[in-house]
Design a protein that fits this description.
Length: about 170
Amino acid sequence: MLKKLLAALSILLLLHIYGCDKGLSPISAEQKAGFSGTITFLGNWPEGITRTHLVVFQNELKSSADFNIINLKYVSLEIPYGVKTFNFNSTDSSYIPIGAGTYEYVAVAQSKKPDLSLIRSDWFVAGVYYSNGDTSKHGVLEIPENTLVRNINIVCDFNNPPPQPPGGK
């Protein structure tokens, strides 16, 4: 009887030492690919804004024709009017989710139209993602498989808006 008890205790001790530190928790799912960061709004919001979204395009917007559903790879849910900061995580919620890949244009777009539209002239860019603080050109977002890329931060300065892509107002 003592031998059986010692054997059982030895097995439990080995399981404790070499076993999983998470107990009987399920195997974790792979991390969803995505990105997160903070959008900071400086100055007074323009009057009449009805929609503000974080948008990501696969390719740079070199003409108004590039503003299309094939090139558009991510659209966040609405950013509330008048906020000073907005923290986001693309894996939480969006109209169009994003996956792993390389994306050439990340921006905060605003519209005075109440409905979601794919007409370029309905939108203007309030802020652009710049990598490594280089504001001379927009940053490229690279999302590896199963990775959440952090610190994709954007400043929207209403007193000093970024250059507008072709086809805007």
